[in-house]
Amino acid sequence: MNTKFEAVMAKLLKRFLNDVVFVDLKPENKAVLAGLNAPANATLPLFIEDLAVKIKENDMDEIPVVALIKGLVYAVGAQAELPYRSFYIDLLKHIDPEIGVRILSDGIRFAEEGQYSNAILYFNTVLAMDHESIDALYNMGRAFDDLCDKEARSDLRVLSKWCYEKTISIDPSFAYGHFSLGFALYNDEKFSEAQRHWLSALNGDLPEEMREELVVGLGKVKDRATYERGYELILAGRVEEGLELLKALEDDHDEWWNLLFFIGLGYRMLEQYEDALGYFLKVMTLNTGHIKTMNEIAICLLSLGDFTEAERYLKEAIRLSPENSELLCNMGIVHLQKGDQATARIYFDRAHEASPDDEVVAMWLAHINQKMI
Q1: Which residues contact 130 (CB under 8 A, 6 or more apart)?
Q2: Is residue 357 part of a domain?
Q3: What is the C-alpha to C-alpha distance for residues 179 and 36, in angstroms, rounded to an integer?
Q4: Tens of pLDDT along 314-368?
Q5: What pLDDT does residue 32 have?
Q6: Per the domain annotation, does 181 fall within a domain?
Q7: CA–CA separation, 265 and 269 (whole Å)
Q8: DSSP letter string, 260-314
């Protein structure tokens, strides 16, 4: 299992060990092992609540099997690095060869009851017994999604996504995994990948209501996947190809500020500054305060020779992001173009302090230093 995933799981589930007490394995208790060899000095985890009556009666000569099984489930599921964990797994299988199916069933019941952390604990125990249990992985992913919604913890989306990815790495034809992973990717705005997994899901065995949900999703994702491909082409320097894709979306989606931003960026990269400026100004009406757009407007104005307006946009952007080295550097360029070398030097110095490894900033700072010798 992924190391980072295990670390998050341990943090989430460790509290369940508070419901377990570890007792020494006495000779009279070894009957419960039924011939299974126990490591020297091994202790047994028992679920405290099921021990209440025995403790009250001061009768611990016989270990209650129910308390032992539940204690083993909690111990195995809660902490990967627990001493004797492999022995506990062997003991669970020894007590009941079908125990994995029963634990999985209990986990699903917990999830249906809204006890998502308990469900995750039980699914994790199943995975400790069988690392490639697709049922445990998929249901754990769904429980993470539900827990994320319940507790407004967006960080858990990473864990659910990992579970779905793992299911299809084990079985590339697992339609449910493609279905849920597609929605995770759509929410991450990775539209092309979402589309690919949804198409794979449609080729698999899914209930009709899930298939209908996919058809709706694919309708929504088609244009977004085209948008994603378009801006990736622009960022890769294939500007004309990217613009062709993005411009085809403009009539139907002129409210997508990010679409307009990348069209503007494409025109700016082609040095068509007036066209680019028109798109960036429209972006500002849809997403006021977008710092990258302010910067792009300033670059266009600077290239068109309107230094005063360029300074105005950069001044507002720097007010919103005072340590942004790109903004500071561009403000230095504006002042340099206006003939104010002293002020330009101040901004280049600030930009260098904010980002000392930025080669562009270093180049402009060296340039102004040379001019002022």
Answers
A1: 100, 136
A2: no
A3: 42
A4: 999 999 999 999 999 999 999 999 999 999 999 999 999 999 999 999 999 998 9
A5: 59
A6: no
A7: 6
A8: HHHHHHHHHHTT-HHHHHHHHHHHHHHSTT-HHHHHHHHHHHHHTT-HHHHHHHH
Considering its fold, how many domains does the chain have in total?
1
pLDDT in tens, 77-119: 998 778 888 889 999 998 888 999 999 999 999 999 999 999 9
Q: Identify whether the C-beta of residue 122 lies closer than 8 Å to the C-beta of residue 13.
A: no
DSSP assigned state of 324: -
Q: What is the pLDDT of residue 355?
A: 93
Query: pTM of the prediction?
Result: 0.71
Residue 337 inside a domain? The answer is no
Residues above pLDDT 90, as percent of the chain: 67
What is the rounded CA–CA span in Å between residue 113 and residue 317? 49
What are the C-alpha distances in Å from 39 to residues 74, 97, 157?
20, 21, 39
Domain that holds residue 135: 1-167
Residue 268 lies in a domain: no
Q: Where are the alpha helices (DSSP H) in the chain?
A: 3-13, 48-56, 65-78, 85-95, 99-112, 116-129, 134-151, 156-170, 175-187, 191-202, 208-235, 239-250, 257-269, 273-286, 291-303, 307-320, 325-337, 341-354, 359-371
- What are 71's two structure tokens? 């204690």
Contact 54, 84 (CB under 8 A): no
Reduced to 3 states, what is the DSSP secondary structure of residue 24? Answer: strand
pLDDT digit string (tens) for 26-50? 665 555 566 677 777 788 888 888 7
